[in-house]
Design a protein that fits this description.
With 415 residues, the chain is an alpha/beta fold. 32% of the residues lie in helices and 26% in strands. It is built from 14 helices and 26 strands. The termini are close together. The structure holds ligand EPZ. The site of ligand EPZ has 28 residues, from helix 1, helix 5, helix 6 and helix 12.
Length: 415
């Protein structure tokens, strides 16, 4: 596994550009099999989760090209609806093929998904939704098999606004007979993006981005070209990079409305954020104040920014509390932070952060994607060098993170 070496205390300056959203691109790649002909997805980030999705598609016979960040997918030659275990169990998003396979081919066999070790990652909401549409489900020794002669639209209520379950039900219902309603649906911007993509292919989806989505089934979908939205978590990571190094930077390719929960908290802490066209200027030079944060489904504060904002709060005088309500085991980064001199303790779902004056560089290990990104942020403000092992976790979701940061003044390199 490769590692990153960062020499901290460098002021950042200049412009950094976010890529398209990982959590939009992945379900859109899965949904592309629903269209007849070649779908082109533009500005797809060059990250390992995308490479795995490409491998999965090629493994079942699809024609896939990836050139200059444009992904072309032709599903006409797909000859199998079973995803091989050793690849599909690597990432969570492999499970997003369930809905499209069921809608287009009437069957699917997918091994339990992998992904970040931030909790048990159950799938019962996905399966409950698909069986409500008429799918027959077998769960046996580590895989899920679903079959349906016909999918019939129905009313579905999600016990929790699960992003993945909302996406799978959405993709299964676009070709179902009649109308489907998903209540207590996830409202994340990536859901709206997926719905916009499917509607561009000829689907009839209304209300995406709210907690109630209506889908009227159609007979077929046609291929299209589409550019996913910018990555709001990558942008949020750079906003914290500016604040934690007390720097001022410009972040380009952002949708500000998707950043509101993060911007609101950073402004509360004293970070200056100015809007530009398709860009924001983030200035962390003021004395920052501590605050309390509770992660919630969108439009609440995103769980995917929890580790990053914790890194920032550990450098701010006073006591801050972060409560993680979305995943049950997403504090793995705290041990690594405390090795670098932070003072963080855990009580139930909450982390209590006592701000410290000094963060010391040392050898640390990335436990998952966002924990790895947060360790990079800690390295940027630490005295001395920080060595981050297992940076492959970071490369699952960030396209050339170290090169982009080096471009704005960070002293960081990959070995
Ligand atoms: C998506 O994961 C994202 N991944 C995650 O981003 C993100 O943290 C999460 O949504 C929440 O926003 C992708 O989009 C590829 P969920 P997903 O289903 O769909 C429980 C990152 O860092 N749940 O909304 O797996 C589950 O246990 C990654 O980019 C059930 O109980 O998230 C969790 O506690 C990490 N039953 C909560 O819902 C189910 O059937 C949220 O999960 C499904 C989920």
């Amino acid at each position: 596994m490769s590692k990153l070496i960062i020499t901290g205390k460098r002021e950042l300056s200049g412009e950094i550009i976010t890529s398209s959203s990982k959590n939009s691109s992945l379900p859109i790649i899965a949904a592309s099999i629903l269209g007849n002909g070649t779908t082109r997805i533009i500005n797809v980030p060059n990250i390992s989760d995308v490479k795995i999705m490409i491998e999965l598609l090629r493994g079942i016979g699809a024609k896939v090209d990836y050139y200059k960040n444009t992904l072309s997918i032709n599903p006409e030659s797909i000859n199998c609806t079973e995803l091989v275990q050793e690849i599909s169990s690597k990432i969570r998003a492999s499970f997003q093929f369930l809905g499209p396979f069921l809608a287009k081919y009437g069957k699917a066999k997918i091994y339990y998904p992998g992904g970040c070790n931030i909790g048990t990652r159950p799938i019962e909401l996905h399966l409950k939704g698909l069986s409500s549409l008429g799918a027959y489900i077998i769960k046996e020794n580590g895989f899920v098999e679903v079959m349906a002669n016909k999918l019939i639209g129905t009313k579905i209520y999600l016990d929790f606004p699960s992003v993945g379950a909302t996406e799978n039900i959405l993709m299964a219902s676009v070709l179902a007979e009649g109308e489907t309603t998903i209540d207590n649906a996830a409202e994340e911007p990536e859901i709206t993006d997926l719905a916009n993509f499917l509607n561009k292919m000829g689907a009839r989806i209304y209300g995406a981005g709210t907690d109630s989505i209506k889908i009227t089934g159609v007979n077929k979908l046609t291929a299209c070209s589409y550019e996913p939205i910018p990555d709001r978590i990558e942008a949020g990571t750079y906003m914290v990079a500016a604040a934690i190094t007390r720097s001022k930077i410009k972040i380009k390719n952002v949708h500000e409305d998707c950043l509101k929960p993060v911007s609101a908290k950073l402004k509360e802490m004293g970070v200056n954020i100015e809007s530009g066209d398709d860009a924001i200027i983030v200035d962390g030079k003021n004395e920052l104040k501590c605050t309390d944060i509770k992660t919630m489904p969108f439009p609440g504060f995103p769980t995917d920014m929890q580790a990053q904002i914790m890194a920032l709060l550990s450098t701010v005088k006073g006591t801050s509390i972060i409560t993680e309500t979305v995943f049950e085991n997403r504090f793995n980064h705290i041990n690594e932070f405390n090795k670098m001199g932070t003072n963080i303790s855990v009580s139930g779902k909450s982390a209590i952060i006592q701000g410290v004056d000094k963060i010391r560089g040392c050898k640390v290990c990335a436990s998952d994607l966002r924990a790895g990104a947060a360790l990079v942020l800690m390295g940027l403000c630490a005295e001395g060098d920080t060595e981050i092992a297992d940076m492959d976790h970071i490369e699952r979701g960030y396209d050339s993170l170290h090169l982009k940061l080096e471009n704005i003044g960070a002293q960081i390199f990959k070995v």
